[in-house]
C-alpha cells in the first residue's frame, strides 16, 4: 500500500502569489495535483500539506476528498512538511509499505507516472524510486517504509534529494522529461500557459 503526500506549504516567494492557486487548463495547480492523486493507485491515501496562505488555498480545495493538514512550521522549509506528511500518513495507515512525495507545481505529473513509480519499486526491489529529468533525480519520488525514519529526521530546507544522494545504490529511476517544468516565477507560469 502506497500513500501520496502532496507538498503545498511553501510561500511562493519568488512568484509573489500562491502558486498553488495558479490556473492551468481550468484548474488550480493544487487541484490538478489532487485530481492526479485521487485517480492514481494511491487514491485512498492522499494527504495534502498546507502552510503559507493556508486559508486562500484551502477554500480552493474544500470540495476535494483528501486529507488536508496544516503545517504551522512551514517557514522552516520543505523538511517540516515532509516530516508532518510522513507522520500523518503513518498514523492514518500503519500498514503502509511506501510513500510518494509530490509537489503541486509540476503540472505534468499524471496517474500513469505514479503507477510507474510503484511498479518500478516492485520490479527493481530498490527502496527509493526517483524521477529523472534534465540530468537530475527528484520528485515525484517513492520511499519504501525502510526510509520512513529518515524522512522523519529531515531538517530545514532538506528535501527528498538529500536521501536520494545519501543512498545512491538503492535508487531506481523512472524517466520523466516533463518533470523539469515547474513553476517558481511568473516567467515559468507564462511559458506553462503556452503548453
UniProtKB/TrEMBL annotation:
Which stretches make up the MobA-like NTP transferase domain?
5-166
Q: Which Pfam families match?
A: NTP_transf_3
Q: Which residues form the signal peptide?
A: none
**Top-level taxon:** Bacteria
Its recorded name reads Nucleotidyltransferase family protein
Amino acid at each position: 500500500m502506497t500513500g501520496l503526500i502532496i507538498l503545498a506549504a511553501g510561500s511562493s516567494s519568488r512568484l509573489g502569489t500562491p502558486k498553488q492557486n495558479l490556473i492551468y487548463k481550468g484548474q488550480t495547480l493544487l487541484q490538478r495535483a489532487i485530481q492526479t492523486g485521487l485517480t492514481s493507485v494511491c487514491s485512498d491515501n492522499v494527504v495534502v500539506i498546507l502552510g503559507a496562505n493556508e486559508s486562500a488555498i484551502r477554500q480552493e480545495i474544500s470540495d476535494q476528498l483528501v486529507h488536508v493538514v496544516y503545517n504551522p512550521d512551514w517557514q522552516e522549509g520543505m523538511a517540516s512538511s515532509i516530516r508532518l506528511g510522513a507522520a500523518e500518513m503513518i498514523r492514518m495507515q500503519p500498514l503502509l509499505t511506501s510513500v510518494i512525495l509530490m509537489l503541486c507545481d509540476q503540472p505534468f505529473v499524471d496517474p500513469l507516472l505514479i503507477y510507474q513509480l510503484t511498479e518500478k519499486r516492485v520490479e527493481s526491489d530498490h527502496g527509493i524510486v526517483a524521477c529523472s529529468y534534465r540530468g537530475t533525480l527528484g520528485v515525484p519520488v517513492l520511499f519504501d517504509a525502510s526510509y520512513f525514519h529518515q524522512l522523519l529526521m529531515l531538517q530545514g530546507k532538506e528535501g527528498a534529494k538529500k536521501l536520494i544522494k545519501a543512498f545512491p545504490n538503492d535508487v531506481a529511476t523512472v524517466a520523466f522529461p516533463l518533470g523539469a517544468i515547474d513553476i517558481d516565477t511568473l516567467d515559468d507560469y507564462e511559458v506553462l500557459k503556452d503548453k
